Every structure is written in C-alpha cells, then in structure tokens.
Amino acid sequence: MQNKSVSRIFGLDCVRALAITLVILSHCSFLLFPGETSLFLDSVRLMGAIGVDLFFVLSGYLIGGILLKQLIDKKTSWSFFLNFWKRRWFRTLPNYFLVLILNILLFLIIGHSLPKDIFLYYLFFQNFAWKHPNFFTEAWSLSVEEYAYLLLPIIFYIGMIINKKWKATKFFLWVTISTIVALALIKLEYFFNNEVSSYKDWSTSFRKVVIYRLDSIYYGFLAAYCVKLYPEFISRNKKGFLVFGLCLFAVLHIFIYMFNLLPQNNMFFYTFFYLQLICISLIALFPNFIELKSQTPFKSIVLFVSTRSYAMYLVNYSLILLSLQRVFDLEETSVLSKVGLLFFFLGICIIISNLIYVYFEKPILKYRDTKFPR
C-alpha cells in the first residue's frame, strides 16, 4: 500500500474508516453504559464485531488481489512470494510489536501478572486453536490475518511447483474454495466437541480463534477474483449487490432476534452459517465502495481516519479504554463525567494513533516501499 494519497482508492479508505468507526463506537458504549445491557446496546456492541469482520474481508480483498495478479503475471518463484511476505510483515508487524510492548510495560507498571505464555504473542500463536488470553485482546484478529497471509500463498507456491501450466485464475479460484471447504471441516471438530453457555463464551472459543476464522479472509480473496474477472458485470449490478448485502445483513439479524437464536441453543447455525453470511453481506457492499468518488468535503477526514485506523485499532481498547476503567469507577460516575471521559477517550485515541502513524508507521512503510518494491 502506497502512502501517497494520489495512489489510494478512496472507496477502500471509506471501508477502513467505517470499520474502525464501528469498533470505536462499540467501545464507547462501555464508557457511557458500563455494566448495562439492552437490545440497543447489544446492537451497538455487535457493530464492533462487524467492524472487525469488515477489516477481515477488506484485507482479504486487497491481499487476494495482489496474489492473483502475481499468479497471472507468472511471478511464482520463491523470491516473489518472499517479497510479498516481507511487504506484509513491514505493514503489520512493527505496529503490532510496538503496542504489544506498551501493553507489557503497562501491566508491569500497574503490578498485574502477565500471561505465563506471553512469548506466544510474538509468534501470533496465543489463540491458534484455543481461547485468547485476557491480555492485549485486539491481538486475536492480527493472529488470524498473519496465518491467513501464510497459508494460501504457501499453497499457491507449492501448487505452481507441481504444475506450472495451471491457468492462474482457475488455480486461484479452486485453491481458495478448497481451502474454505477444508476449514469448514475443521469446524466440525468444534461443533461436536464444545458446548457454550453464552454469546461471549462462543466468541472467545470460536469467533476469536485462528483456525476457525481464516476463511473470513479468504472470502475477500473470492471477491478479488470476481472483481478481476467480471468487472463490467459487477459495476453494472452494483446497486443490486448493495440491496442484497443490506437485506442479507438485516434479515439475518431479524431472524436471530425473532427466533432467539443464541450460540448455546443453536450451535450449528453459529458455527457454520452466521459469520460466513456476515462476510458475504459485507462483501456485497464492496462494488459500491470501490466506485466512490473522492470529490467530497469529507475526503480529508476519511483519509485521516483510514491511514490511522490500524494504529487506532491496536491502542483504543487495551491501552486506553481499560486504563480508564481501572482509574475510574464508571458505574458510580455521573453522566456529565462520563461524557467528559468519552471525549477524552476519543481525543487520546486520535492523538496516540496519529503519533504512531506519523513518526513510526509511515517511515517504516516508506522504507519498505524503497527496500521491497511491489
């Protein structure tokens, strides 16, 4: 990803900005309404999870597009795949390790015990096939992305060694579909061997576990394939896709509400359908985002939020929100004070993420683009 705004796709910047906005808004509810629950609050907090899913499918769409082009251009030697990984690692790892270290320092300062297997965080292995520890909770999604970036490119590389004559587009499509199917079979083990008592229990034991969530990234790969091969059809029917995506999302949650579908009483639905349908509904919105024009008075705001979205995602909860919860008894705090804390929370999120982006992330990306050009 280039850092010059002229090379950015405005619509995808809008997707990033929307995703992080949903995450931040969901966390704001914990400041304003601590310990409270209602249909409205549950819906707002659900939007935080949807924001992460939006990040997943967007990431898959972008990375899938890069890999598909690489296969089409016959850049299938090990050096090309290694360059792909180096670029991804320079994009994701520095911020991640910086915030991981900050979380460790914060825990040591306040006298909390670190997870006994803290070293697993350095390998993105802390939630590979089990629940994520109650530390630096945002890290669960980074683990999903890092292993997604490893798995399919390795399969692509091995496949092209076996047969270099495979047509790139068909090879990309069938390997992606086969991988999604294989990952669905892994979910059978979860379905038959786990019981959950609540949505939160299901979320920690399934939704935030690497081996059960890799397919969320790969739905984005399928979207990249469709946009690459059928651009005119998708552009021509973008309004239809928009209606389909919104209706699918709405009907899915209305159906859940009407029939009181919960993980503890309908594990099959939540294991094999819910998250998959969420991803499909979000991907259906992409054709409209892709064609958004940047001639808007909100362009600078969208660009600012989009470029800082990764840093903002990493710091907003574990570093900032939880620190505020440790300092203030929010359930005993007045409404006016909560509003003040809310503005402080948003302000400090913006300030810290901007500092990380300008003085840490951006220079590293500039070095990456010089050292490892696409």
From TrEMBL:
InterPro entries: Acyl_transf_3_dom (IPR002656), Acyltransferase_3 (IPR050879). Residues 11-353 form the Acyltransferase domain. GO terms for molecular function: acyltransferase activity, transferring groups other than amino-acyl groups. GO terms for biological process: polysaccharide biosynthetic process. Keywords: Acyltransferase, Membrane, Transferase, Transmembrane, Transmembrane helix. GO terms for cellular component: membrane. It holds the Pfam family Acyl_transf_3. The chain crosses the membrane at residues 12-34, 46-72, 93-114, 147-164, 171-190, 210-230, 242-262, 268-290, 310-328, 340-360. This is Acyltransferase. It comes from Seonamhaeicola maritimus.
